[in-house]
C-alpha cells in the first residue's frame, strides 16, 4: 500500500508559469491514492484553468475566501483541518512574501495561517527575483518557522534567463510530500504529557499571584512531540496562544489544579515535560470577598504549592521526566542541583531576565543537562529549539531503556 494512501493533501497553486507542472503533481498524488484538493490564487487561474485540477482531483477548485458556495461546501478552517499536509507549488515571490508577513487576504494565504500541519513550498520565479535579498530573507524566516522548502532548481527559465528560480520537477515534489507524510517520528507510539504556561493563585475573587510565562515554549514542545509521532496531552495554565491540534488539552488555573490534572495522566505517559512556570507559593485561604484598602499595609500569608515535577519524578514506575529551570544567576549550577534534588531524567535550563530571550520572548538559548552529559542550544526560535529538544528527549529515553545502545 502506498504511504500516501488515504492521506489528505491540500495543493496551493499560485500565479507562475510553472503552475502547469502542478497538474502533474496532482496526477502523481492521486495515482498514489491520496485525496487531493486544490486551492488556486486569482492569478494562478491566468496560467491554468481550474477545470484541469477539478478533472484530476474530482473536487471543485477552491479560491475565494468569502464565497458563500465554497464556504458552504467546506469552510476554510475545515479545509485547513482536513489536510494532512499543505503544499504550495508553485510559490511565487509575492506569495512567499505574504506568508512571511502572515497576511490572510485570500483563501490560500488564510489556509497557510490556519493549517497546523506540515507546509511545503516549491518556489518558482525569475532568477533575479529569487536572489533578491528580500526574497532570500523571507525564505530564511519561513525556514525558521518550520516551513519545508523544495528547490528552486537551476536552468533555463521561461523568461529566457538562466539561473536559480525554476520550480523543481513534479516528481521531486511528489517524492518530498510522500517522504514527509510517511516519516516515522522519533516518538512514534509514545504518549507525552506537557504542562505549560503560568498558574494563577487567587488572593481574592479579583486578584491573583502569577508570573510572566507566556507558555510559548511548552506549546511548541507539545506541537513538536506531536509532529514526532507522539500522542500528546497538554495541561495548560492561562495563556493567550492559539490551541494546537493535540490529543487532549486540559485548561487549569492554579498550581493545585495543575497538580491534579498532571498526576491523573502521568502514570499512563511515557514522557512528562514540565515546562509550566508553576507558582511556588499560593495565598492561604483566598478571601471570598474583594479585599478593601482600609489598612495602610497588608500581609498576605502564603503556603508552598505541591511540587508537580518532583511528584511525577518520584513515581515508580513513572514517565521519563523533563524539568525546566528558569534562572537569573548560576544557571548550570542551579540546574544541576535541581536535576539531582528532584530526581529528574533531564533538565532544560534557561537564563531569564537577560538578553537570551526567556519569558514572553519568541526565542531562547538553552542548556540541557542529564546525569552524565549536557548540551547547549544557542539562541534560536522556540519552535526550532522545541524540535531539537524533542529529538534529544527521544534519544535519551531510548538510551535509558536500553543503555548499551549508545
Ligand atoms: O524548583 P523550580 O520551581 O525552580 O523548578 C522548576 C521546574 O519545576 C519546572 O519544570 C516547573 O514546571 C516545575 N515545578 C513544578 N511544581 C511546582 C514548582 C515548579 O512542577 N510547584
Question: What is the molecular shape?
Answer: elongated
Quickly name the level 1 CATH class of the largest domain.
Answer: Alpha Beta
How many strand segments? 19
Provide the residue-averaged pLDDT: 91
What about the largest sheet? Answer: 8 strands, mixed
CATH superfamily of the largest domain: CoaB-like
Q: Strand order, biggest sheet?
A: 12-11-8-13-16-17-18-19
Query: What CATH architecture of the largest domain would you give?
Result: 3-Layer(aba) Sandwich
Structural class: alpha/beta
What fraction strand? 15-25%
Poorly predicted regions = none
CATH topology of the largest domain: Rossmann fold
Number of domains: 2
Helix content: 25-40%
User: How large is the count of helical segments?
Assistant: 14
Distance between the termini: 34 Å
Task: Name the hetero compounds present.
Answer: cytidine-5'-monophosphate
Radius of gyration: 25 Å
Amino acid at each position: 500500500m502506498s504511504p500516501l494512501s488515504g492521506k489528505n493533501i491540500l495543493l496551493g497553486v499560485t500565479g507562475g508559469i510553472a503552475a502547469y507542472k502542478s497538474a502533474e503533481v496532482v496526477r502523481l498524488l492521486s495515482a498514489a491514492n491520496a485525496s487531493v484538493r486544490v486551492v488556486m490564487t486569482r492569478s494562478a487561474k491566468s496560467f491554468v484553468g481550474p477545470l484541469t485540477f477539478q478533472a484530476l482531483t474530482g473536487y471543485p477548485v477552491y479560491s475565494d475566501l468569502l464565497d458563500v458556495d465554497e464556504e458552504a461546501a467546506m469552510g476554510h478552517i475545515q479545509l485547513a483541518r482536513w489536510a494532512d499536509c499543505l503544499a504550495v507549488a508553485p510559490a511565487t515571490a509575492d506569495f512567499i512574501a505574504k506568508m512571511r508577513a502572515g497576511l490572510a487576504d485570500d483563501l490560500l494565504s488564510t489556509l497557510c495561517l490556519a493549517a497546523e500541519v506540515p507546509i511545503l513550498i516549491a518556489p518558482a520565479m525569475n532568477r533575479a527575483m529569487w536572489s533578491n535579498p528580500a526574497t532570500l530573507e523571507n525564505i530564511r524566516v519561513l525556514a525558521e518557522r518550520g516551513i519545508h522548502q523544495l528547490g528552486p532548481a537551476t536552468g533555463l527559465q521561461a523568461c529566457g534567463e538562466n539561473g536559480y528560480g525554476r520550480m523543481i520537477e513534479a516528481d521531486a515534489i511528489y517524492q518530498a510530500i510522500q517522504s514527509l507524510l510517511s516519516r516515522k517520528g522519533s516518538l512514534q507510539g509514545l504518549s507525552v504529557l506537557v504542562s505549560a504556561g503560568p498558574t494563577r493563585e487567587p488572593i481574592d475573587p479579583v486578584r491573583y499571584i502569577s508570573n510572566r510565562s507566556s507558555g510559548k515554549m511548552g506549546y511548541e514542545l507539545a506541537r513538536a512531540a506531536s509532529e514526532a509521532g507522539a500522542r500528546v496531552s497538554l495541561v495548560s495554565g492561562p495563556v493567550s496562544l492559539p490551541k494546537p491540534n493535540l490529543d487532549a488539552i486540559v485548561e487549569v488555573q492554579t498550581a493545585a489544579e495543575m497538580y491534579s490534572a498532571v498526576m491523573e495522566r502521568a502514570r499512563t505517559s511515557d514522557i512528562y515535560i514540565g515546562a509550566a512556570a508553576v507558582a511556588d507559593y499560593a495565598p492561604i485561604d483566598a478571601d471570598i470577598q474583594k479585599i478593601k484598602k482600609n489598612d495602610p499595609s497588608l500581609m498576605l500569608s502564603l503556603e508552598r504549592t505541591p511540587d508537580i515535577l518532583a511528584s511525577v519524578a518520584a513515581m515508580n514506575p513513572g514517565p521519563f521526566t523533563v524539568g525546566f529551570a528558569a534562572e537569573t544567576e548560576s544557571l548550570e549550577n542551579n540546574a544541576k542541583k535541581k536535576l539531582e534534588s528532584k530526581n529528574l531524567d533531564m533538565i532544560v535550563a534557561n537564563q531569564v531576565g537577560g538578553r537570551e530571550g526567556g519569558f514572553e520572548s519568541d526565542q531562547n538559548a538553552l542548556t540541557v543537562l542529564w546525569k552524565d552529559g549536557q548540551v547547549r542550544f544557542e539562541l534560536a526560535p522556540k519552535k526550532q529549539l522545541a524540535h531539537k529538544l524533542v529529538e534529544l528527549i527521544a534519544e535519551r529515553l531510548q538510551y535509558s531503556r536500553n543503555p548499551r545502545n549508545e
